[in-house]
Amino acid sequence: RGLGDLLIHLQKKWFEDVSCGVPLLYKRIFESALGGERALEVRAAHLCAKALVGIAHICRITILGTFGKGGKVCEIRELLSIYSSVKETYLADPCNREIYWRSIDISMDFFQTSYISYEGDHPLKKLLRCINLSPHCLHQLNIVLATEGYAELMRFCLNNLGGWTAEKELDAIRIASYFGHTKIVDMFLVPESGFSLLSNTKDRHNVAILGAGEALHHSSLVV
Fold this sequence. Notes:
The protein is an all-alpha fold. It contains ten helices and no strands.
């Protein structure tokens, strides 16, 4: 099943450039050490493992790029599903070492950095909370999504990704309020049924008012 899925994955638009060729030196080593049919089996396993790792790597960078540039939640869900499938296939082979997977691992507890570049100064440098933040902090998912106003992606992250803290929630609210992204602000101030947040209601309202005040969005200050 795993190899059949691999062939299906390789036909997806994201993986057109996946390369899984075996260097000539490897081929000769396989042939001289194993010979015949066994060499072909080992070479095929090597090709498969390389393709799986290539797909996983593309999934990871594409997901982070989608968070940074905006995109469809359905595509992120599909990429995460593909990633889980290829990871399962890769780790099912005892010859594949888990240590090689760590550099491309995506955990649902992740709170990765999603890089996005701006011309000139970062737009958050005018916000008191963010003046002294490092570039790394400015590119954390909660901050990027709140800055850009990606409401559906924010909802997806709140529902599906770990790594959230009360502080990250409050930063997202304050920044979204500062930029006037009311859908995101409302998402936190009037959470959906069954939607659990780590910050308390009073703090969420206070930072929403603070963010609107810093941006002089007077209409948003009416409580």
